[in-house]
Design a protein that fits this description.
- This protein is an all-alpha fold and about 80 residues long.
- It contains three helices and no strands.
- The chain has a domain of about 50 residues.
- The longest helix has about 30 residues.
- It is elongated, with a radius of gyration of 22 Å.
């Protein structure tokens, strides 16, 4: 498999490989493995949240309520 990187990203990768004494291929492999693990975990979380909403175990909060909550929280913080 080939991966196309921007020149800037390739420079960063090469610099990190030089600093760490590791091969660029190994760094890319480690980065991709970590990224894919993270994406898989996010997918599990999102699926679980969707299932909770769909089943009615949790109720959605309207966006306007969330916005009002954070606006009030910010206003309280600024007033201190």
């Amino acid at each position: 498999m080939e991966v196309q990187l921007t020149p800037e990203t390739e420079q960063k990768l090469t610099a990190l490989a030089t600093q760490s004494g590791r091969r660029t291929d190994d760094l890319v492999e480690d980065a991709m493995a970590g990224y894919l693990d993270e994406v898989a975990q996010v997918r599990v979380t999102l699926d679980s949240r969707y299932d909770d909403l769909k089943s009615g175990r949790v109720k959605p909060i309207p966006g306007t309520d969330v916005e009002a909550y954070f606006r009030q929280k910010s206003a309280t913080r600024r007033a201190q």
